[in-house]
Amino acid sequence: MTLIPDIQGAEAFSKAKDDTRLWRAVIEKLGGDYGFSGEIRQFYNGSTVVASIGDEAVIKLFEPWTLALHSNEASALGFLHSMVPIPTPKLFGSGKIEDWGYLVMERLPGENLTSQWDKIEADNLAAICAEVGHYTRVLHSLPIPPDPRLQETWREFAQERKELCIERHRCSGIVNDSLLAEISDYVEDAALEDEELVFLHTELDSNNVLVNFDNGRWQLSGLVDFEPSTVGYREYDYAGPSIFLARGDGARFSAWAEGCKADLDSRTRKRILQWILLHRYSNLRYYFEVVGRKSIPSTLVEIGDILVPQF
């Protein structure tokens, strides 16, 4: 008897992933294999199956067509837990079950920031943004291998993003040809310079920041979801906080930048907007929903003023 349902393809998986009944057996089996048991609580804010079992462990499954992400996150968690004074999950184990990948990780305290956002006062949110900024800087200071191939890999990634950029934005609902032409010109010189490569989380958004209420204040309690982590230019990691932590508020973005010790000069702001436009999951329509706007402005100047807010 198989433990994992027979699901063929990403579309079918997307429809089935949030049905806890389908995944209970494999979660219980993997938890038991590593000595964990208890209530199963599935988290629904991600692209795959993630569930806690009891109070100590979280289990994450990877579809057979995403096994490269499985090995990437396993490597990243092992590296980070030994190197970083940041609350990241300890990796208890990883492997394959019925051709699916899995990770068994430490359950960190707290809830994701998205779920608690409306409960947190403005000054407390700014303080959390500053904490995330500080840990962004710590991540970017980690030693990476002095391998010249990493620079070439990053250039290839950037070139691919530029080649796919306009079609991606068109498919997400941007039909303004003038704006699309402006975007095409704007991203042309992204990643042309030989700059320092750093370790990147790549998705520093409010879903992947954990917060806990302690001593009358909400505080950062962890960073999670390192499956797409990579090595590249630091401004790629500035895109997430600019949208999902600032949410159009210059004071919050300024607090994050102060924690990160990032100089938000005109050059840096341009590079942040470039990587917002080139990000692997870039979607302007969704970004403007996040910042509370009903429509997308017709020029890049207006888009930049909102998505890379000034204080």
Number of helices: 12
Uncertain ranges: none
| Secondary structure category | alpha+beta
CATH class of the largest domain: Alpha Beta
List the quaternary state of the chains: single chain
Rounded to an integer, what's the Rg over CA atoms? 20 Å
Pattern of helices and strands? HHEEEHEEEHHHHEEEEHHHHH
| Lateral arrangement of strands in the main beta sheet | 1-2-3-5-4
User: What's the number of structural domains?
Assistant: 2
CATH architecture call of the largest domain:
Alpha-Beta Complex
**Beta-strand residue percentage:** 15-25%
Rounded mean pLDDT is: 93
End-to-end gap:
59 Å
The strand count comes to 10
Overall geometry: globular
Helical content stands at 40-55%
Largest sheet: 5 strands, antiparallel
CATH topology of the largest domain, which one? Aminoglycoside 3'-phosphotransferase, Chain: A, domain 2
The name of the CATH superfamily of the largest domain reads Aminoglycoside phosphotransferase (APH), C-terminal lobe
Give an account of the 3D structure.
The protein is an alpha+beta fold and 311 residues long. The chain has two domains: 10-106, Phosphorylase Kinase, domain 1 (2-Layer Sandwich), CATH 3.30.200.20; 111-307, Aminoglycoside 3'-phosphotransferase, Chain: A, domain 2. It is 47% helix and 16% strand. It has twelve helices and ten strands. The strands form three sheets. A five-stranded antiparallel beta sheet has the order 1-2-3-5-4, sandwiched between helices. Strand 4 and strand 5 form a beta hairpin. Helix 5 runs parallel beside helix 9 (250-260). It is globular and about 55 Å long. The mean pLDDT is 93.
